[in-house]
Every structure is written in structure tokens, then in C-alpha cells.
Amino acid sequence: MAKAQGRKCAKAQAVNKEYVSLSPAEREVIAVLWAAERPMKASEVADELEKTTGWRLSTTRTFLKRLVTKGAVEIRNLPAERAAVYVPILDDADVRVAEAQSTLQKYFDGKLCGLLSCFIERKSVSDAELRQLHEVIAQELEAKPAATKCASKGGCKKRK
Fold it and tell me: Which residue in 100, 116, 123, 160 is deepest, having the highest Cβ count within 10 Å?
């Protein structure tokens, strides 16, 4: 029965990177896998986490199963070692972008202009950061073909 359940977890659905949200504890677990840059057994992950969190193997396995269910990590079986290893499917950038998009959707109806306007209006953005943003946007606009540039006349609407 445990083998069948393990196989079921190993078959994570196609990852929808836009909707992966990880808890702080799940981020700690996947960070161990990212840092290792190689497939790891649950016991190896647990050994690393025990140093910083004090978690036992059972706790680590629980978080690994959650990560598999969310499609952030996959299980691979190594017949030669008769052991399963965990491999991250998502990288740190995937997780950061998904979390940022989730926050953007939740608080600003998915509009980046709403977020930026909020920070700028409250003087939370320095002049140096504004110049950097301007440069990034200008470079991106120059790199895109004229046909794909946004021709929206509405601009950014401020949230009240």
C-alpha cells in the first residue's frame, strides 16, 4: 500500500508555475534541495534541516510530500540504491514570481501599475530605484517589436 501511495505522489501533475504558493517551512525544505544541486534522499534532506530547524525525518517527509503534491518537487526511484530521491522541479525564481503574481492579484487586481503607484505615492521608492525601473522598462520596450507594444489609452488606474 505504501508503495502505491509513493508512486501516486511521484506522478505530480504538470506544474502550473503561476499558482505555486509555498509556506515558509516548505521553502526551507526546497531550499535544501536547491542548495544541494543534486537529487537527495529524504534522510539527507532531514539531516540538513535538523541542523537549522530541529525537525525529525517524519516532519521532513511530510513537507516533501506536500511539495510533491504541489508540483514543486518530484520523486525519482533509484533501483540501484533501492531508494527514492527528491528533485526540485521549480527553481527559486519560479517560486518568487508565482508568489509575487499571487500578491499582485490579491491586492492590486493583477495590475503591476497599481503596486508601483502605491509605492511611489508613499515615497517608498528612491530616486535611484525609479531610474533603474525606467531603464529596465525602456530596454524592454526597445527590445519588443512595435506591433506588440501596448497601445492602451487608459494607463494605470490608481487604487483608492
Answer: 116
Look up residue 18 and give its DSSP letter.
G
Grid cell for residue 153? 489609452
Domain at 76, CATH number? 1.10.10.10
Q: Using CA atoms, how far apart are residues 76 and 66, in angstroms rounded to an integer? A: 16
**In a domain? residue 127:** yes
* Distance, CA of 160 to CA of 151 (rounded, Å): 25
Strand partners, 32: none
In a domain, 100, yes or no: no
Q: H/E element holding 73?
A: strand 73-78
| Closest listed residue to residue 32, CA positions, set 12, 53, 11 | 53
Cα distance between residue 31 and residue 96, in whole Å = 12
In a domain, 30, yes or no: yes
Q: What is the pLDDT of residues 29-83, one digit of tens each?
A: 999 999 999 999 999 999 999 999 999 999 999 999 999 999 999 999 877 777 8
Burial readout 12-49 (b: 16 or more C-beta within 10 A, e: otherwise): beebebeebebeeebbbbbbbbeeeeebbebebbbebb
pTM over 0.90: no
- Three cell numbers at 144? 519588443
| Under 8 Å between Cβ of 63 and 26 | yes
